[in-house]
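Step 1: inspect the first sequence and its C-alpha cells.
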Amino acid sequence: MEALNALKKYIRRLAQDDSFVHKEWFVTYHLEIAEKLAMELCDLHKEADRNLVTALVWFHDYGKIIDFPHEHQATQDKGLSKLLELGFEHAFAEEVIQGIKLIDEKTDLPNSSIEVRIASSADGASHLIGPFYLLYWREHPDTSISDLVLENRRKLEIDWNKKIVLPEVRRAFKDRYHFLKEQFGEFTDKLL
C-alpha cells in the first residue's frame, strides 16, 4: 500500500524534528520494534488486516510528535486530515483514528478488534525491549533517582496491565516484566 510507505516516511521525518524530545531514538527503539512485534503477531492472527495494524503502529504516537502536551487530542483533531493527505481512503483513515482512540483510552482494549489488540500489545511490549525505560533517565537529568524509578514503574504497570492484552504477548514477556519490576525497585523477599 503506497499510503503506508508515505506514512512511514512522513513519521520518520517528523520524528527527527529538533523540537521532538524523543528524536534520537523514537523510530529505531520504539516504532520499528513495535512494528516487528506487530507483524509477528499478524503471523499468528492471520485474520488481522496487516495494513491496518501497520498504520496503527506507525501513527499511534502522531499526537505526541506534533503536540506532546496534548498528544491524544492532537491525534483526534489533526490525524484524519493527515492520513487523507498521505493517500489513505477515508474509511480506512477513520478506522485508524478510532483504533488509536481506543489505544489512548486503554479502557476496552480486550474487547477491541484484533488489529487494535495487536497494535496496543506491540506498543506496550516494545517498551520492554531495548533501552526504552533507560532513555527516560537521560531525557530527565534533573529528576531525582527515586522519582525516575517511580515513573518508570508507573509506565511499566500501564504497559503490562492495560496495553498488553494478548495472552501470547503476556506469556512471552512475563520474565522481562518481572526483571523490569526489580529494576524499578520492587524486590522479591529472597534474591537467590
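Step 2: inspect the second sequence and its C-alpha cells, then contrast the two.
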Amino acid sequence: MHSVHKHTYFEIIFILKGKGLHNINGNTFRYEEGDVFLLGPEDFHDFEIENLTEFCFIRFNELFNKNHTAEKDSPWQQIRKALLYTSSQSRGSIVQDKAEKQKLHSLLTILEGEYENHQTQYFDMIRDSLMQGMMVILARNLLGQTRTKPVLKDSVEPVLLYVRQHIYNPAELTMEHLAEVFNYAPAYISIFFKKQTGESLKQYIIKHKIKLIEARLLYSQLSLSEIANEFGYTDESHFCKQFRKYTGSTPTEFRKMDVA
C-alpha cells in the first residue's frame, strides 16, 4: 500500500512494472506496466499494489511550463493548458496506445541516462527538450481522447480542477459562484468538499494559492506587488498578511530564507 498523500507540484508517474489500483481524488483505476499518470498540486492519491511495482516519478512546478510559453498564442500555451487544466485525473492512465507508451518510456530512459552527465553545460538544454517532448506526447494523447472513463457522481475532482483553472481570479472562487457552477447550495458544496477531502473548500483554495505563490517567490524575479496582482489580491498588504498567516513568515523573509 502506498499511503494517501498530496503534492505541491506536478508529477508524471511512470509504471515501469507491476499492477494494482490507483486511487485519485475519489476515483479508482487499474494500473499496469507502461501506464502513465499526471497529477497536479494538491491532488490526493494512493496506490494499492497487487504485484511488485516499480515507479518512476518526474516532478516539476507550474513555472517550468510557464517559462516555456512566453508567447500568448504559441503552441506551448495550448500544450500547457491541456496538461495543467484538462481533467486528466478522471481518466486514469493518459496514454492507452502501446506505441505511444513506448515512446514516452524511451524518452524517460534517455532522460535517466542524461542525469549521469548532469554537470555538463548541455544538460539543462537536453533535459528541457526531453521534458517538452514528453509533454507534447501527453498533451496529444489527452486531447485526442474522445471517450473517457466514467467519473463517480460524487467525485470531488471536478471541483479541484475548477479551482486550479481559476486560482488567479478570486471572483470565480467564492462559495456562491462555485455553488452556482456545480448546481449545489452554498452550504452543501462546503460540506461535500470537506467530507471528500478532510478540509474546507475555503482552506483548500487559500493553501493551493499559497503553494503557487511560494513557487513564484523561489523561482521568479517578480516583485511582491506583481505577485499580489497576479493572484488577485486587492493590495500588497493583504497579500503579505495572508501569506504570513499560512507560512509563518512574510514573503520577503521567505525569499531571503531560500537564498540563505
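Step 3: confirm your contrast with the notes below.
The chain has a mean pLDDT of 82. Residues 157-259 form a domain with the Arc Repressor Mutant, subunit A fold (CATH 1.10.10.60).
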